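look at this fold:
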Amino acid sequence: GAAMLRSLGALLCLWALRLPAGTGAAARGLDIASYRERVRAMFYHAYEHYLESAFPYDELRPLTCDGQDTWGSFSLTLIDALDTLLILGNVSEFQRVVNVLQEGVDFDIDVNASVFETNIRVVGGLLSAHLLSKKAGVEVEAGWPCSGPLLRMAEEAARKLLPAFQTPTGMPYGTVNLLHGVNPGETPVTCTAGIGTFIVEFATLSHLTGDPVFEDVARKALKALWKNRSDIGLVGNHIDVVTAKWVAQDAGIGAGVDSYFEYLVKGAILLQDKELMSMFLEYNKAIKNYTKFDDWYLWVQMYKGTVSMPVFQSLEAYWPGLQSLIGDVDNAMRTFLNYYTVWKQFGGLPEFYNIPQGYTVDKREGYPLRPELIESAMYLYRATRDPTLLELGRDAVESIEKISKVDCGFATIKDLRDHRLDNRMESFFLAETVKYLYLLFDPDNFIHNDGSDFDVVVTPFGECVLNAGGYIFNTEAHPIDPAALHCCRKRKEEQWEVEDLMQEFYSRKKTKKFTLTRGPDHGEGESAKDPEDASSEKAGEKRNSKKSSHSLLSCPSQSFNSKLAVLGQVFLDNT
């Protein structure tokens, strides 16, 4: 009774929030196309000025119309913006940039680079572009997607990061010199996210190249964090990767921790890995128990669970999107609405916001055009179609244009109270912020494919399906096609159940049988002790028929799947 009344009350509150005039779906539906075009114009205003004034440097300095190297010296904004070009439909520029990058980017340089940033921006950007290149009309080589120039570049960049993982714990150093490896005297203190944000890119690399080393080091690092969680199930912010002692003991969902949790969920979906999912669900319980108050999340001491900072950080705004991926849409929506009130108060999300005081925190009043709240709106809009989410998109477009647009691009907002600007345009503005805004306003984008449309490619390892949707975004918004991970299996017994995937499809060849058993090179993460995981059912036999009869994609479904993807799934029960 009481619980029922409470949820009814909550529903009424939410309903009331949506009633003001002009916010109904019809009113919003009218201008979704015009906002989409405004987002496209934003992209080109920033992108063209980067090319004109900043290339080949990493980033544009929009107030002085010049460029600077920030995270290395890779023409970073170009790599980061590449897949956004395709999402906006610009195949000719995508093709041009692929050629520019092949000729111009060199990772054999004497530069100290962030292991985390290089992975998510460079390796992630190159992998995503590699997997999308056929769709973008690039002439791909015969072995694609198991080979190709962008894949070789991604692998080369990732190899430069491997020395960082050679520690007693398997947790990586935070910085590596691209030429010499880890510098002598390098600090052993790394943030949690800098240890746990590799599995999406590194497992993709291992599956495409056949070299297990990448996935192995990423899994080992994830395991080490899990092993070092506190008795109450929380992880801190920074840890010593040599001694495994926690240096910063604040536990929360924001800066320094964020994408570790994100990659447990996304890694679980990408790899169909129950163990990663159960790790996340354990953390999720502890996070709810100790850090959640009134649909806000605070920072607590990782061993005692006492509140250390009653602060909301803008980076935490990814959390509602992550909750939607595990199907927890109601909680996601409630937290999203809290965060959206902060946006409305300032026209952006300050880096830190003091929850009890309802105001910014000293020295943390800036908004560097971050994507996280827009990212959550994009996921939640896919899940609910709630027009409030389009309103956040509208507000973001209006704010960013009004406050941060300058002649040479868009500038970081140094202070949301007086709208002072900083001379920087982070590469994630074009990689993430603009991309998620565009996808929010473009319901028919190929990224939102629900599996009814797909391509079949023939690889040296047999036929496989690509571009069927269910893309997993890395934490820099680079979409990875999960089906691609099943295209390049080197061992017969490891092969994806091609029969189920290709049911009644291109069926001229002789009957074959494949079963999926995961080999030992899959890392201890997916041990054979889980019989459902290594599905032992016989794969359906190919039907011999003259004509290839087309049917919708139908893939084997596993029990924990139903909870997972709210986004267009590749794994559907009854397509």
Summary: Residues 25-54 form the longest helix (30 residues). Confidence is low (pLDDT under 50) at residues 8-28, 491-496, 508-575. The radius of gyration is 23 Å.
